[in-house]
Automatic annotation (TrEMBL):
Belongs to the trans-sulfuration enzymes family. InterPro entries: Cys/Met-Metab_PyrdxlP-dep_enz, Cys_met_metab_PP, PyrdxlP-dep_Trfase, PyrdxlP-dep_Trfase_major, PyrdxlP-dep_Trfase_small. PROSITE patterns: CYS_MET_METAB_PP (PS00868). Gene3D superfamilies: Aspartate Aminotransferase, domain 1, Type I PLP-dependent aspartate aminotransferase-like (Major domain). The modification N6-(pyridoxal phosphate)lysine is found at residue 194. Its cofactor is pyridoxal 5'-phosphate. It comes from the Bacteria. GO terms for molecular function: cystathionine gamma-lyase activity; cystathionine gamma-synthase activity; pyridoxal phosphate binding. PANTHER family: CYSTATHIONINE GAMMA-LYASE (PTHR11808:SF15), TRANS-SULFURATION ENZYME FAMILY MEMBER (PTHR11808). Coiled coil: none annotated. This is Cystathionine gamma-synthase. Pfam families: Cys_Met_Meta_PP. Keywords: Pyridoxal phosphate.
Length: 392
């Protein structure tokens, strides 16, 4: 049986009624026959049948022993960091998701957890950053917004050799393209707000654990700290996951066409997309992933914030918004939006130049998206030197 067939049919038919969709068990508590005698559920923070259904599907998708669903991606990251204790250290990817950076530096540093950021595409740098106190390696691949690719299997070996936990934020790739647990990760997290949900209609996070023991520890923090996914959002997430394979496939087809178009466009500076042979991580991405995803970043030749603003306010189908992974195409201007709080020098050094634009390529017709970009390029201000030529 194919994995897609398995996935679709692992979503249980309701044993009570035969309902083919998973019912939303909107209840806070469950009646017990005698103290401690129940049908597997006692209180809905600890467990809920709708949440249990989505957790089971996601564990299967990523190839883990268990999954735990949280009220956001950040709550999922938070649960993983709670495995550590004061004095422990983390080695993390340098262009990490901004919210994870804030959580590490503004919350966990206070509790005595130190984080070292390194370019994880350089294995020697990862190796050198490890100290006897390092307990966790934190990876994103591809990263946001420059789509940097790191070698999951090699970093997994470094983690093993140093007795560190290894967690991969697999939000950008999704388990359709990349399965970090098979490549040596102990834990995977997702902002299920993005591709897993897929319709820009919920905020959710998940942690998938390779072993049952690690899964139990995460479930302990899920219940002890309480940032659980609601029954309704669990239902929406199941509904999203049912079409994940088809969506991710089409996001990738659209993104490849757009990246190739952008690379040839005279107004474009650099294009960041792992599906392009010009991308430094192309070969590695081909080895460890089944595709290159739906996110593209590019810079303009006229590398100014003004030019980027003109572009991002001129598209029709690409809506200007943060977030990614939904059926509708989105675009954003990281220097003025998601990366605004990073000092300009540091931001530019990380490859996020003033004109960098990030696309989350949706599921519209490829040609409509190409035409939308094409007309937006005509709205760019004419550079000063070109005006001189015209008036001469
Ligand atoms: C959005 C995102 C998160 C945070 O998820 P939320 O659901 O917004 O809390 C974490 N990691 C990555 C890579 C993301 O894109």
């Amino acid at each position: 049986m194919s994995t897609i067939t398995e996935l679709i049919h692992s979503i249980p038919v309701d044993p009570q009624t035969g309902a083919i969709a998973v019912p939303i068990y909107q209840t806070s508590t469950f009646v017990q026959e005698a103290p401690g005698v129940n049908k597997g559920y006692d209180y809905a923070r600890s467990n809920n049948p709708t949440r249990a259904a989505v957790e089971k599907i996601i564990a299967q998708l990523e190839g883990g022993a268990t999954a735990s669903a949280f009220s956001s991606g950040l709550a999922a990251i938070d649960a993983v960091i709670k495995l550590l204790k004061s004095g422990d250290e983390i080695v993390a990817v340098d262009d990490i998701y901004g919210g994870a950076f804030r959580l590490f530096n503004k919350v966990y540093e206070k509790f005595g957890i130190k984080v070292t950021y390194v370019d994880t595409s350089d294995l020697q740098a990862v190796f050198n950053a490890i100290t006897p106190a390092t307990r966790l390696i934190w990876l994103e691949t591809p990263t946001n917004p420059t789509l940097k690719i790191s070698d999951i299997a090699a970093i997994g070996r470094i983690a093993k050799a140093h007795n560190c936990l290894f967690c991969v934020d697999n939000t950008f790739a999704s388990p359709v393209l990349q399965k970090p647990l098979e490549l040596g990760a102990d834990l995977v997290i997702h902002s299920a707000t993005k591709y897993l949900g897929g319709h820009s209609d919920l905020i959710a996070g998940v942690v998938i654990a390779k072993t049952a023991q690690l899964g139990e520890e995460i479930k302990f923090y899920q219940n002890a700290c309480g940032a659980i996914l609601s029954p309704f959002d669990s239902f929406l997430l199941i509904r999203g996951i049912e079409t994940l394979h088809l969506r991710v496939k089409q996001h990738g087809i659209n993104a490849q066409a757009l990246a190739e178009y952008l690379e040839k466009h005279p107004a474009v500076g650099k294009v960041f997309y792992p599906g392009l042979p010009s991308h430094p991580g192309h070969e590695l991405a081909k080895q460890q992933s089944k595709g290159f995803g739906g996110i593209i970043s590019f810079t303009l030749k006229e590398d100014t914030a003004e030019a980027a603003t003109a572009f991002v306010t001129s598209t029709n189908y690409f809506k200007l918004a943060e977030s990614l992974g939904g059926i509708k195409s989105l675009l954003c201007h990281p220097a003025a939006m998601t990366h605004k709080s990073i000092p300009a020098e540091k931001r530019r050094a990380a490859g996020v130049s003033d004109s960098l634009i990030r696309l989350s390529v949706g599921l519209e017709e490829t040609n409509d998206l190409l035409a939308d970009l094409e007309q937006a390029f005509t709205k760019l201000p004419v550079p000063a030197h070109a005006e001189n030529v015209l008036s001469a």
